[in-house]
Amino acid sequence: MGVAVPRGYGFDKASLAASNFLPVDRMILGFFRRAESRKRLIDGLQARIDQAARVPGLYRRLQVPDTVEGRFEAVCLHVHLAMRRLKQLPPPAEDVAQDLINAVFAQFDASLRELGVGDVGVPKRMKKLAQAFYGRAGGYDVALDAGDRTALALALGRNVLGDADGERAGPLADYVIAADATLAGASLDDLLGDGPRFPRPDDVGTALGAET
């Protein structure tokens, strides 16, 4: 599952500022530029996002289709939520976000090839996947930024559930809103260490708790 990063081990500015080590920016960037350590951290982050996108409650309780397309949508949704938080954090979070999206699309590329898509067809399919991901991310961001549950449910219904009216997407919208609120308090150390933490899909509609 990757390497957990102890508090203040190179990414948490507040803890570093209180230390007697190198200046904050030098230490953070120096550690993150170590290729082997950097790859382990990104691999761990990606693995935890993938795990969150496979939780059975997403498919059983929140009605995400248990299909290749549905699982793609679940991965995209959780990657977007993690990326959204990373973009709100100070450097080197932007570098982490870029490495994460690179790793995600490398995984998509490998998956297409495993499904038998040839070298000629992969670039076209990857372009469509990229357009789908960024289009969805933009729509979810607009709804989340506005605090508009109805707009979010419409977007999730259309993209994830195949429900044009968003009538069945209310619970999934509640899950996304709760996840966004939980991640809003996460530091970069949290995301690269024990997190990102997402709500339990089975708790939607009751008392939303964090996935352990």
TrEMBL record:
Domain of life (superkingdom): Bacteria
Instruction: Kindly give the InterPro entries that the UniProt entry links to this protein.
Output: Ubiq_cyt_c_chap, Ubiqinol_cyt_c_chaperone_CPB3, Ubq_cyt-c_CBP3-rel
Where do the Ubiquinol-cytochrome c chaperone domain residues begin and end?
Answer: 61-198
In this chain, the stretch annotated as Disordered covers: 192-212
* Family as reported in the entry's similarity comment: Belongs to the UPF0174 family.
Name of the protein in question:
Ubiquinol-cytochrome c chaperone domain-containing protein
Report the source organism: Methylobacterium brachythecii
